[in-house]
Amino acid sequence: MEFCLEKFQDLDPSDPVAFTEILYIIGEMQIEDDDYMQMLLEHKEDMIVTWEQPWYQRTGHLTKKLPPLENKENFRTGKFSKEECDTVEQNWNKFIELFEIPNTPICLARWRNRKKRSNVPEEYVRRYVMEFLAQGLERNIYQVYHYFVSNYGNLHKNSYYSKLEEKVIETCLYHDPPNAVLYSSMVLSREKRGIQKKISKNGAYQEKQKATKWTLSLASKVLRSLMKHSGYSIEHLKDKTFPIEVWKKVSDDTDLKVPSLQSFWYYKLHVQLFLKQDIKIKKLRRKVLKLLNAYPYKVWPDIRWKELLHHFPDGMTSHFLYKISAGVCSKIKNYLKMPLCDVIQCGLRYLKQNRRLSDKRLKTLIMNDEGMLEVKRYNDEY
């Protein structure tokens, strides 16, 4: 299944709906890949190596390089030649004909062992396929697997990115910066290395790392910088969106990446600054889930979070509503495909039964005369 980019034509990358679409399609891909693996597992008993193999195809791991050994017949290194590429393709065609399986190698190339164990049947099957493809090659199994994933798992290899592809990458960066490269690679069927280069040109790339520890001091620094470069006073920052040039200047001032700054502002700080009521998070989650019952949405990806805003106090954002709701419902298996009414009931049950979800209050903030943020409690409870 190749992802249809047209659905992003009318979606704003900052809208949680756009990111939900990405999570949905990734889930669909994983189901398709798992189904393909199940077809392969049905032939496991017949997957027996009956041909002669050099030592470097009988040993080693799929995902770990095998070093050359002294006094041993050694394998070739470097890029696969055209003749070797043709051999792999011919072996693949023989394999699918022998076992009568669909010709969709991308499903096997994308499949990942989420069990994180090497002694599962799926790993036996995957290794057998790579050994089958290695016939006639002076290559070890790691090399064949690496070539297979790179060439059959990525449909698009040109360096040109369409406007819609850039929109997908922007959406991933906006909502989940640490996983942006991984998610974009899966959805666009492109190599992660190419996407990293693409993002790095805009200065937005960041390796997966520990989340920024947001303190009042750091948040104050970000807010002062945003006011300075946007030209707005704190009162006029509400409900504003800012061009990338402003965020890059704030990034220079704070040594933080642009996606992290955007995510912090829209998902956290905006609500903490402009919501002038005492809010309990657990109570708010319950209200959002119950409210969804009144709308004609059928499944989770149908939800248009901006449509819910008029039910909530001034200063609320669609990003915040999405975050606190997804924080509960994303724990439900297949929540993106289940009927929304079932997701709502499961979510409400989870809130009621899970005592670890303490009813914390939203930490509302104000800026004092010294330009520092401090906690402000409101008597008006929502």
Biggest β-sheet: strands ordered side by side in the sheet: 1-2
**Oligomeric status:** single chain
- Return residue spans where pLDDT drops below 50 for at least 5 consecutive residues: none
Overall pLDDT, averaged?
87
Range of helix content? 40-55%
The first-to-last residue Cα distance is 46 Å
Please summarize the sheet with the most strands: 2 strands, antiparallel
Number of helices: 15
How big a fraction of the residues is strand? Answer: under 5%
Instruction: Tell how many strands the DSSP assignment holds.
Output: 2
Indicate the radius of gyration in whole angstroms.
25 Å
Q: Provide the number of structural domains.
A: 4
Helix/strand-derived category reads mainly alpha
User: Outline, from the CA principal axes?
Assistant: elongated
Q: What is the helix/strand order? A: HHHHHHHHHHHHHHHEE
Topology of helices and strands:
Elements: H1 16-41, H2 55-58, H3 82-99, H4 105-110, H5 121-133, H6 141-152, H7 163-175, H8 180-188, H9 192-200, H10 216-230, H11 244-254, H12 258-274, H13 281-292, H14 318-329, H15 340-353, E1 365-367, E2 373-375
Antiparallel strand pairs: 1-2
Helix pairs in contact: 1-7, 5-6, 7-8, 8-9, 10-11, 13-14, 13-15
